Structure formats: C-alpha cells, structure tokens
Sequence to fold (331 residues):
Amino acid sequence: MKKMLFLLASLCLAAPLLADQALGTLTVKGKTTVLHAVAASEQTDPKDASQKWLVILASDKKVAEADRTVPRLTELAKDGKLHAVRILWKVGMDSLYVAPYDPSLPQSGRRSLQHPTINLRAYGNGNLDAEFESKMLGQDWHFHANVKAKVAEEGVLELEPEAELSADFGKSEGSAAGGGKGGAGKAELGKLGYSYDEKSFYHAVADGNLDAVQLFLRLGMSPNAHRKGDLHPMILSSQLCSNQPESKPRSDVLIALVNKGGDVKAKDENGSTPLLWAVQGGCSPAAVQALLKAGADPNAKAKAGATPLMFAEIFNHPEIAEILKKAGAKK
Fold:
C-alpha cells in the first residue's frame, strides 16, 4: 500500500469517456446541494515543474475555464452563484487537500484542515474515474461525489490558502471533546486530517503517520482497536514496512503500537502473526526486537509452514536472522 493521509489509489488506463459526469452532494449546515458538474485537470507545481497536481472541481453548475481561478471561484461563491468543492492531489505523493466554495462557509475558498479520501478507480490516458468524500472531523459541512471526466492540461497550480483552526474544530457532536486536554488533542488530530475514531486510527496506521498514531495512543486509543473486517493494527503496520521512506520509517509505527500494548499474537485470516509479517515485509531490526521483547513467538509458522527465520534468510535480512536466532528461532 502506497503511503498516503488516508489515499486509496489504483492507477490504471481509463476507457474513453463520452462526457464529463458527476453525481454528488455538498451539505453545509444541514442544507444539501447536488453536485452534477465536474472539471478535471493536471496542473504543474509552482515550485517544481516536474511535479503534477490532479485538480478536480465538482460543482452545482458548469464552471467556465476562465472562472476556475481561486479568486474567481471565491467571488462566485460569495455571491451565491456557486457551490463546489475543489480536490487537489499532488500526483504520487501524500498531499491531498479540499477547498469548499459556499457562501455560508467562513472558510470558503480556503484549503480545509480536514483531508478528504479519494479512490482513483481509473486515472491515466487523459481520463479520470474517481470517488471522493470528506472525513467527519466535527465540521459543519461534508461532501461525497463520484466523477468521470476528461483530464485537461491547465498550466501552473494556484493553491488556496489554508483555513484557520476554529475554536470548535475537532469537537465530537454530543460530547465535550472540544474542551480540556482531550479536546485540544482531538483538534490537533483534526489538523493532521483525522477524527478520533477507529476508522481514522486505521487510516493513520495505513498512512504510516507516526505523529498521528502516537497522538491517537496518547488520547487513549487502544493499539488493538479496529473495526470488524479491518486488519488488526499490528498486522497492518507490520505488512507496510516494505514501503517505508527513510525520513518516516513505518517500522516506528509498529514499535509505537508494541510499546503501548499492541497484541504481538494477533493473526490475520491465514494465521500469520505480526512477527512473520515484520520479517517478510522488511521491518527494521529494532521493530523485530520490540516484537520479541513483548512476547512474540520466534517460531510462529505461516500457513505454508515458513518460520520467521526462514523468511529472514529468504529475503536476505542477516541482521534480523541473528536477532531471531538469539531469541531461539529455528527453521
């Protein structure tokens, strides 16, 4: 899974589209507007000409190309002539933003502190088929849309300014989550793009976002919390070590979970443990040591009979192999 702030993308060549299509809703303070127009484009990063951004504008009416600048969209929304959301994704990277455009929102025309989720069902060859929606972080607006569109080339990206953190950002409806230390922590989670619930915790682990995972744990989220049907966080984090940048090693997420009582004996549907996945997935020696110190079985067997030591040798991890041998691992 590629490292993304909860980005679920599967890139493939899209079949030719007959016309741009959109079906979605934008709900602001209880009032819902249907989004039935879309315009998609690839734009160049203003600081790096080699980097592209995918920009998707879903709106209640078709917007002419000349009106798709940030100042013009802001003006149209202020005059009540436009209700829209603008999704911006730095192609292949973690950066994924949304800017709402609605006259009822003080943050209209500004990049939201919440991060949307997007599923790129098809993206390539000048075509786009995608679904995107908001995360619920206590804000008074939300959206969801399915779009199909031709992707145009439209010059250099103009990124909306970031919205300011409001006093009640991150509050949970019907609770006192916005007050005290916990409320401040949940507001901080909101700034990182997550709400305080098991679904968002899963996404933080999947994103490899160490800061967010540690904040979840400090706020009281169990390292073993997961919804029915989701992978156990210990399994998920150990599986994803194979895609860890040097600047943000995913192994640190696994270690953080272990240090807070993550279940080292958790198993996936095939009976594989976090240790088996950690060795196979290329987690750091420190992560393997943390699992063993917490009681992981060095001789656990995968469904086909492979042991952690066998995986260490198969995938050429000599340092991990030595750690396993010292812990009593056998082939």
Notes: The chain has two domains: 8-156, 197-326. The longest strand covers residues 141-156. Residues 8-156 form one domain. Strands lie at 8-9, 21-28, 31-35, 37-45, 48-59, 84-90, 96-101, 117-124, 127-133, 141-156.
